[in-house]
Amino acid sequence: MKGNTEELDGVIDAVRSADILVGIPCCRNEKTVTVVIRAALEGLKQAVPGRRSLVLVVDTGPADGSGEAARNVRVGDPDITLHYLAAAPVFRHADPYHGSEGREIALRIILKAAQQLGVHACLLLSGDLRIISADWIVRLLEPLLLHGYDYVAPVYQRQRYEGTFAQTLLFPLLYALYGRAMRQPLTGEAAFSEQVIEDLLRSPFWNMDMLRPAVDLWRSTAVVAGNWRVCETALGSLDREQSSLSVDVSTLLVQLAGASFTLMDLYHDAWKRSSPSEIPVFGVVHEADAAPVTVNLDNMIERFRLGVREFMKIWSVFLSREIRAFLHKAALQPNEHFRIPDEPWAEIVFSFALAHHRKILNQQHLVQTLTPLYLGKTASFIQETRQLGPEAFAAAGKRVCRAFADMKYFLKVNWTV
Question: What are phi and psi of 246, to 5 degrees?
């Protein structure tokens, strides 16, 4: 990390002070990073003309053409400075990683730069965006600078079943715990105030290696747990450069569901006293045109049945007798009528969270056994909602959230510090 500190000191000495910082984490993004930089430059001219701004590209990937591409971008504005920082080699994840390698290191460098420069607002833009307009920068900064919000999260137009992990697990869990949640808590884009910068830098997260793969989820959770003024802004469609690394469902659950459970320990004082509140939205969020369901629902249901047969002995340690009986019965349902209602699903997730908290089993193995249950719930959710219109589909998502919120008492009663 010494090399990163020296590189950052050089940037701070060169810039000295700034009002706005745009941080761009970059990892193997030589094809897209210039697109993001140019949008940031034009967006700053539109959103904050005449304000001193820094665009800081932090590259945590191996040597490629990203540095040369970034340095060759012409700024053309005396109030805006562009710097490229190649971060030193960082912690590498043993498993395939759902995000950009070293993203947590890039975020910390960006936060430290923002703190040392005394900026009023920090904006994050992922370096893998293939399409981005200058208007995004305006929409992300305006609620912060004009309306007094501390944190602005994006909402993207998505296909109906793009992101079922967030729809059926992450969003309902965060909503139940903290009374509010961002609809898309895994996005790499955001804008936040200098107060949030300080709060994030003080977090124990930076010393918790198991949370590194979930840095964006942690950031979203920390903000709602910290009771900051949060809003969302609609940015339209999202087009990212796809990673060549494939991540299976079990790995995704270990990295993200496991992180959510760990964050419950970190922020237990916050979720125990939270109360429901709405997150305001700037702009109109439209559901993308319904696309055909491309996943194999029969395969997902069969994996659910296999999990019930293989893991019931493990689950019997912490799942209630009623839930175990329900799972046995669900495994006997014909595929076309297969359903996992929201209420038992909420109890299952909270039971896993309690077992994770109590360290009843190896935590990683525990979360891996959630995989067939998640696949079963996802198959059920798709079958229930595939014929619904946009309003009815949104109502179905809200019912999942209500089921989790109603089950929160179960968590609070059984949680021990």
Answer: -95, 140
Q: What is the dihedral of CA 44, 45, 46, 49, to 10 degrees?
A: 100
Residues 361-405: tens digit of each pLDDT: 999 999 999 999 999 999 999 999 988 888 898 899 999 999 999
Q: Is the dihedral of CA 326, 299, 306, 210 positive or negative?
A: negative
20 phi and psi, to 5 degrees? Answer: -130, 140
Domains along the sequence of the chain with CATH: 2-282 (3.90.550.10), 297-414 (no CATH)
Neighbouring residues of 68: CB distance < 8 A, sequence distance ≥ 6: none
Integer CA distances (angstroms), 408 to 164, 173, 178, 298, 325, in order: 21, 9, 10, 32, 22
Q: Quick check: 161 and 300 in contact, CB under 8 A?
A: no
Q: What is the pTM of this model?
A: 0.93
- Strand bridging mode 230-237 / 80-86: unpaired
pLDDT for residue 2: 57
Q: Please answer whether residues 141 and 48 qualify as being in contact, where contact means their C-beta atoms are separated by less than 8 angstroms.
A: yes
CA-nearest of 326, 344, 332 to 301 is 332
Sequence-ordered list of residues with C-beta below 8 angstroms from that of 233, at least 6 positions apart, any chain? 139, 140, 142, 143, 152, 153, 154, 155, 281, 282, 283
Say what the pLDDT of residue 134 is. 97
What is the enclosing helix (H) or strand (E) of 57? strand 53-59
CA angle, 78 as apex, 72 and 81 as ends, to 5°? 50
Picking from 18, 39, 215, the residue whose alpha carbon sits closest to that of residue 127 is: 39
Query: What is the residue whose two structure tokens read 């006997």?
Result: 332
- C-alpha 402: how far from its chain's center? 21
